[in-house]
Write a structure and sequence with these properties.
107 residues; mainly alpha; 0% strand; elongated
């Protein structure tokens, strides 16, 4: 479900804000990349029950280690990192596509 939400936001940015195609496409890449946070959402949004489930499935040592590696303060940093690296990926992707499209004579 998180992937669909991120896709929808990225698509809406791309479709509705096509004033300057390049920058809004890059912004939509950043918004779409936030879906990666959905993998970590149970750790931050429902921490207690998630740790109980981990303890039952993997053992107390694993759950304790994960709890120390993923403190609550890292959630906003993870969100921002997903957005920023999505933008970086969009810029790199545009540069690669531009090079290949110019070589093919399309752009």
């Amino acid at each position: 479900m998180e992937t669909f939400k991120a896709f929808w936001v990225g698509n809406q940015i791309q479709v509705t804000l096509t004033i300057d195609g390049f920058w809004f496409l890059i912004l939509s890449c950043g918004a779409f990349s936030i879906w990666v946070f959905g993998n970590f959402a149970p750790i931050f949004l429902n921490r207690d029950s998630y740790l109980v489930m981990l303890t039952e499935g993997y053992g107390a040592e694993y759950a304790t280690t994960l709890n120390t590696y993923m403190p609550m303060w890292i959630a906003p940093i993870l969100l921002v990192a997903c957005f920023v690296f999505g933008i970086v990926g969009g810029v790199i992707g545009k540069a690669i596509c531009k090079k290949h499209f110019q070589r093919a004579g399309i752009a």
